[in-house]
Amino acid sequence: MTIFSKIVAGDIPAYKVAETNDYLAFLDISPLAEGHVLVIPKREVDYIFDLDDELYTGLQIFAKIVAKGLRNAIPCKRIGVAVIGLEVPHAHIHLIPMNSVSDLNFARPKMNFTPEQLQATAEKIRAALVI
Q1: Which of 14, 41, 87, 105 is deepest in the core (most CB within 10 A)?
Q2: How far apart are CA 88 and CA 119, in angstroms?
Q3: Of 53, 35, 33, nearest in space to 45 by CA
Q4: Which member of 36, 90, 92, 94 is catalytic?
Q5: What would the DSSP string read from start to end of 103-118?
Q6: From start to end of 1-129, where are the E strands?
Q7: pLDDT of 50-94, one tens digit each?
Q8: Residues with Cβ < 8 Å from 126, sequence gap 6 or more?
Q9: Count of the separate structural domains present in the chain
Q10: 93 has which bridge partners?
Q11: How many CB atoms lie within 10 A of CB 113?
Q12: Residue 107 pLDDT > 90
């Protein structure tokens, strides 16, 4: 069971931003930027391109909804999208508020936020979502 499946099961807490029966979006706790969100299917599948077509397209649509709310909540030029999938064997999409291409550089040092800051950011994004 991956760390993301443990979050889905409620075994590990997360700063949830949006949730449906099939998908979950939550803040990355080692973010590249304020509002860095991970979007996952609740069903554990290692590689994003191994998702069946319905789950894959649903994930993309859910990510689009979350990205729109994220852009409304966090001032930025764009929401960057990255799919890397090497650290956690559970398909996921990174949504990262960005103002320049360098904002998507995963080799950069990660930011640190307090639990209170993460909670406030999650609440701000949830309030900006239109689901």
Answers
A1: 41
A2: 23
A3: 53
A4: 92
A5: GG-TTSPPP---HHHH
A6: 16-19, 23-27, 37-41, 78-82, 93-98
A7: 999 999 999 999 999 999 999 999 999 999 999 998 889 999 999
A8: 16, 17, 18, 69
A9: 1
A10: 39
A11: 17
A12: no
* Paired tokens of 76: 């930025």
CATH number of the domain enclosing 32: 3.30.428.10
Q: With DSSP H G I counted as helix, E B as strand and the rest as coil, what are the percentages for the chain, rounded to 5?
A: 35, 20, 45
Phi, then psi, of 39 in degrees rounded to 5: -115, 125
- Respond yes or no: is residue 92 known to be catalytic: yes
pTM, whole model, 2 decimals? 0.94
The SS3 assignment for 53 reads helix
Q: Would you give the DSSP letter of residue 34?
A: T
Determine the residue type at 127. A
Quick one: pLDDT at residue 128? 94
Amino acid identity of residue 25, one-letter, is: A
Q: Residue 56: is it exposed, middle or buried by C-beta count within 10 angstroms (0-12/13-18/19+)?
A: middle
- In degrees and rounded to multiples of 5, residue 56 shows phi and psi of -65, -50
Distance CA 115, CA 112 (A): 10
